[in-house]
Design goal:
mainly beta; 6-stranded antiparallel beta sheet; 5-stranded antiparallel beta sheet; disordered N terminus; about 800 residues; elongated
């Protein structure tokens, strides 16, 4: 898909997202399967979930004994395409017999109300209702409770939300008439499940013959305005009725005639405006002998644009099946199926509050592609534009297309529409819900998997710039950098589809790390400003912060760096952390990745994910361990050179009775921050051995420095070593000098040399015959020629007779 005009995408992550797990960016080209169980799924409806995702409700056939009946299911999708409820949808109602034609609205309190027609009581349909919470759990009785169970059929309902919570439901009702004649009744339900009006509903219209095609809008005062097709006259006409918040009808008994022009009028569509008892209504009208689109603004039950309304489109050929969308405060956009040309096309018109036409007379063409197009749904994108979706037969079978138009009806995407799905066989009757970022979700019944009599529910997302899905990168893992001192993690992420061919729209990625509330507040108080993601160009440098607040709390994201897009299958970035995971502190940090395009205002954020760093390198072992007998006080004093690690926590001293004893909590005699320890319980018998280790603040413990009875000094001279040895240099790392200690069990020729990591000789410190004893040599970092060596890794090798040992040391500048 090739977008037309790029638009600003206002993406700002809620703090709740910081705590969510990443299930993975899951949009699939051609649509995601929502319900593909055997038999048919259909009659889907959608509503925004209020958090950038959508809720889909539908009816799906299931086998009940020897019969197949529809049940009601629902699913929640987030903007990344993840199914947030049970795979295949949560069952809203699986009662016996048939449940069908669901409607859904938000309940004003983070939940959703779903109503449907239900035949569980026998051959007749009743109206049932259920409320789900944000996690898809039923709040009311399992399988819902009855709204109206009057005699005969109640069906083909419509529903609107009520300001502050609850819903109003209206339906066709056959309790007083033959099976082909229906009245209209309505009921209001609170979020508690309490039915607020007359049991079995308030009569909206009880006129002779049928009242059908019910459409509703809010009256602006917690009531409803209801429009319908009415056959009480010689032809079908359009009637309206208002019912207030108390369940009292406000217009004429059986409704006010809105249009009773000659011939038939049908398919009313209605939206509210900003005035109490006000609405805008359109319909298909045959007064001229062909089908046209008419409409009016309703005020106090009457047409404000003249008797029987005004022609919105009366072009040659037929125009029918209008859809309507409120636009701005008091305008409406109408789109319809238009047959003025050789094929069926899609046209639209914008009408203002006073009935003024904003676009070309008889409408602007939205899509006139080859063969037939049938408009199906339309939503306002929250940015002053409109998104339309339709069935399109330009390739014989029906496919799904969308288009976005601006206030001048100029297409913002590909002029012929953006393809959403052209899978095998038919894709039918799409519906939409807006997201909160200038895009929309679309769902439709799809026949790609089944015979022509069966169909599945699929869904897709189109973003504000006309790209399918959500083109963000996906964080696949955040792992500690191994074998380091902590302070860093490796973020692995997969690019969005726009990184690769044929799109190649992504130019670079930016990486962001969350900040705690206190740190964010300090930044704000110091004058730091919020940075828009549009400012993070590929060559951005410096500091950048994204601030957000929830109530009185302030949070922030801190920019860590950019990476160029290279059309790779995956990317890796090493990110710093502010602290490590340790006892009492989990060390979790949250990160997100933004993908950017050449248009600064077109970008996508990944779902946040979390990880932590770990210091997994042990300190160097304590060096120059000595033990000296003391007579006053009596005991043994141990001392050693101090470690230089900045994260050093303490030293541990263990005592055993043999050189091979294993340090453990049972023989731990002291933990200290000092480089010394006095053992007042020491005696010559038994022979005690001491092992000393260094421990950092993360619990990493070094190797053990060992000293035994033969190493004790005091009144007696240091005894001759019982074994030839070479100790680790101290300090290590070092700058500018270090000391190397070794010992000879017996006299012999000794050689001590220093080499580079590549094996080149740097300096010879010892090459002579020595008597048995303990020795130490200092190396000040100079080579044999007197030059100072560079920082790096060096090796020192000590050999005498058959004894040869090599150790590593590090010079730091």
């Amino acid at each position: 898909m090739n977008p037309g005009k790029s638009l600003f995408v206002p993406v700002f992550l809620l703090i709740a997202c910081l705590l969510s797990s990443t299930a993975g960016a899951a949009w699939i080209e051609g649509g995601n399967p929502v319900d593909t169980r055997i038999y048919a799924q259909q009659n889907q409806q959608m509503v925004s979930d209020g958090y950038g995702g959508t809720i889909i409700v539908w009816s799906g056939y299931v086998l009940e004994g020897a019969f197949i009946y529809n049940d009601i299911y629902a699913q929640r999708l987030d903007k990344w395409g993840n199914e947030l409820w049970t795979a295949g949808g949560v069952p809203v109602c699986t009662a016996t017999n048939e449940q069908n034609y669901p409607k859904i609205v938000r309940d004003g309190d983070d939940g959703f109300i779903i109503a449907w027609q239900d035949a569980r009581s026998g051959s007749n349909s009743d109206i049932y209702i259920q409320r789900l919470d944000i996690d898809g759990n039923p709040i009311w009785t399992t399988d819902g409770f009855i709204i109206c169970g009057a005699s005969s059929n109640q069906h083909y309902l419509d529903m609107i939300p009520v300001e502050g919570g609850g819903a109003i439901i209206a339906w066709q009702d056959g309790r007083f008439w033959a099976i082909t004649n229906y009245d209209i009744y309505a009921q209001r339900v609170a979020n508690t499940g309490f039915l607020e009006w007359t049991p079995d509903g308030v009569q909206i219209c009880g006129a002779i013959y049928a009242q059908e095609q019910i459409e509703m809008a809010s009256d602006g005062a917690k009531g409803a305005i209801i429009a319908w097709r009415d056959s009480r006259g010689t032809d079908n006409d359009i009637y309206v009725q208002r019912i207030d918040s108390l369940g009292t009808v406000k217009y004429l008994t059986d409704g006010n005639p809105l249009c009773t022009a000659t011939n038939a009028q049908w398919d009313p569509q209605i939206v509210s405006n900003d005035f109490v008892d006000g609405a805008m209504i359109v319909w298909t009208d045959r007064r001229s002998g062909t089908n046209d689109i008419y409409g009016t603004r309703l005020t106090s039950g009457s047409s404000a644009w003249g008797t029987d309304g005004v022609a919105i489109c009366s072009a040659t050929g037929d125009q029918h099946f209008p859809v309507i969308c409120r636009y701005g405060d008091n305008s409406m956009v109408v789109a319809w199926r238009d047959e003025r040309g050789a094929d069926t096309d899609i046209y639209a018109q914008l009408y203002g509050f006073y009935g003024t036409v904003a676009w070309t007379a008889d409408g602007e063409a939205i899509c006139t592609a080859y063969r037939d197009q049938y408009v199906c749904d339309m939503v306002e994108d929250g940015l002053g534009n409109l998104i339309l979706t339709w069935m399109d037969r330009r390739d014989v079978y029906s496919d799904i297309y969308v288009q976005k138009i601006d206030p001048d009806c100029s297409p913002l995407w590909d002029p012929s529409g953006v393809l959403i799905c052209d899978e095998y066989y038919e894709q039918l009757l799409p519906v939409m819900s807006a997201d909160i970022s200038g895009g929309a979700f679309i769902s439709w019944p799809d026949q790609r998997n089944n015979a022509t009599t069966n169909q599945d529910i699929y869904a897709a997302r189109i973003d504000a710039s006309g790209y399918w899905g959500y083109s963000s990168p996906e964080i696949s893992s955040i792992e500690d950098v191994p074998s380091d001192e902590g302070g860093a993690v490796t973020i692995e992420f997969d690019p969005g589809v726009l990184d690769d061919f044929p799109y190649t729209a992504i130019t670079h990625y930016s990486i962001w790390r969350s900040m705690a509330g206190a740190s964010a507040m300090m930044l704000l108080q110091s004058g730091e400003k919020n940075t828009e993601l549009s400012s993070i160009t590929s060559d951005f440098s410096g500091k950048a912060f994204r601030f957000l607040s929830t109530g009185s709390a302030v949070y922030a994201w801190e920019w860590l760096g950019n990476m160029e897009a290279h059309r790779l299958d995956n990317y890796s970035f090493t990110a710093t952390t502010n602290y490590d995971s340790m006892m009492g502190q989990d060390g979790v940090h949250h990160f997100f990745i933004a993908s950017h395009t050449s248009d600064p205002f077109t970008y996508w954020n990944s779902k946040p994910d979390s990880g932590y760093s770990v210091d997994n390198l042990s300190p160097a072992l304590p060096c120059a361990l000595v033990a000296e007998q003391s007579f006053d006080p009596a005991g043994l004093g141990l001392s050693w050179g101090e470690n230089t690690e900045p994260d050093l926590g303490c030293y541990r001293i263990y005592r055993g009775t043999s050189e091979s004893f294993v340090p453990d909590p049972g023989n731990l005699i002291e933990t200290t921050c000092l480089a010394e320890y006095f053992d007042g319980t020491w005696t010559w018998t038994p022979d005690y051995y001491y092992k000393v280790s260094a421990v950092d603040v993360h619990g990493n413990e070094s190797c053990f420095a060992l000293i035994g009875p033969e190493g004790i000094t005091g009144e007696d001279p240091l005894p001759t070593p019982q074994v030839t040895y070479l100790e680790q240099n101290y300090p290590n790392p070092f700058n500018p000098s270090t000391t190397i200690r070794f010992g000879l069990r017996e006299a012999g020729h000794a050689v001590l040399r220093i080499y580079t990591a590549s094996g080149r000789l740097v300096r010879e410190l010892v090459n002579s015959d020595l008597p048995a004893g303990h020795y130490e040599k200092e190396w000040k970092g100079f080579a044999s020629d007197g030059s100072r060596v560079a920082s790096g890794v060096y090796f020192y090798r000590f050999s005498t007779g058959s004894f040869t040992v090599t150790k590593k040391m590090i010079m730091l500048r």
